């Protein structure tokens, strides 16, 4: 924005559709189709939007659990952190900023079973497995 360069769009949770918590306050857990919400903290060296590419999330089962995970759905589609929510300059410069989220819905994961999941951020500016932090841009649960 020319007159206000420290401005970005407001995130609205309706883009999370079935995982927004608006129509399903239990986020799918009561039906065995849980939604996991993922936020993107600061990742050193990652610049959202370089070459016009938005960062996006992918999730998968770790090792022997690949047959237990089932099908996944991402909200917004493709698990994308839209560039309209960037840049973020801090809470003093952007008082009403709401951090964007991505939701992952597990459609038919094995019930009553431990499943090791890893989700990672994919970006053309994030190098895989840096020596400083080999887990940068990843979360396991």
TrEMBL record:
It is found in: Cell membrane; Membrane. Keywords: Cell membrane, Disulfide bond, Glycoprotein, Ion transport, Membrane, Potassium, Potassium transport, Signal-anchor, Sodium, Sodium transport, Sodium/potassium transport, Transmembrane, Transmembrane helix, Transport. InterPro entries: Na/K_ATPase_sub_beta, Na/K_ATPase_sub_beta_sf. It is a single-pass type II membrane protein. One of its GO terms (molecular function) is ATPase activator activity. Pfam families: Na_K-ATPase. It comes from the Eukaryota. GO terms for cellular component: sodium:potassium-exchanging ATPase complex. One of its GO terms (biological process) is potassium ion import across plasma membrane. Its main location: membrane. PANTHER family: SODIUM/POTASSIUM-DEPENDENT ATPASE BETA SUBUNIT, SODIUM_POTASSIUM-TRANSPORTING ATPASE SUBUNIT BETA-2. Belongs to the X(+)/potassium ATPases subunit beta family. This is the non-catalytic component of the active enzyme, which catalyzes the hydrolysis of ATP coupled with the exchange of Na(+) and K(+) ions across the plasma membrane. This is Sodium/potassium-transporting ATPase subunit beta.
